[in-house]
Amino acid sequence: MSTLTTANSAVSLVVRGLFPVPQRLQGYATDDSFAADDVSPMEVQMGVDGQLSAGFVPYPTAISFTFQADSPSVDMFDTVLEAQKANKEGFIFDGTIIIQGTGAKYAMTKGFLTSATPMSTAKKMLQPRKFTITFESVTKAPV
What we know:
- The chain is mostly beta strands.
- It has a single domain, classed as Pnp Oxidase, Chain A (Roll), CATH 2.30.110.
- It contains one helix and nine strands.
- The protein has one helix at residues 73-87; strands spanning 10-15, 19-24, 34-36, 42-46, 52-56, 61-67, 93-99, 104-116, 129-140.
- The strands form two sheets. It has a seven-stranded antiparallel beta sheet with strand order 2-1-7-8-9-6-3, covered by helices on one side. Strands 4-5 form a two-stranded antiparallel ribbon.
- Strand 4 (42-46) and strand 5 form a beta hairpin.
- The radius of gyration is 18 Å and the shape is globular.
């Protein structure tokens, strides 16, 4: 039986036009590796007569990746930030997540770097940096 450690999970990203070969992320922060924000797949409205109506609404999924200050993965994200500034265009990310402990696999498609910590905060030790990619689709593969 597998344990629920995050240490044996694997995340790879491709950045179309910059990094066509999957880049394996590494050097995660101690307490935070990656996390998906909550999504809102349904919109609901209550009518004045008390009847609830609902409908599915397509939604993006934001996933944050947090790295130690000396992680080699921050170089990839810094390269993307600089390329976006220079080209005044966003670059598209695609990727996969494999979580060994649960056997879960996820495919991430058409993402954009929507948030970034531009440099580490300087305390006794340099603090982790966080990067958020908002994906059009995050799909779990059957286990």
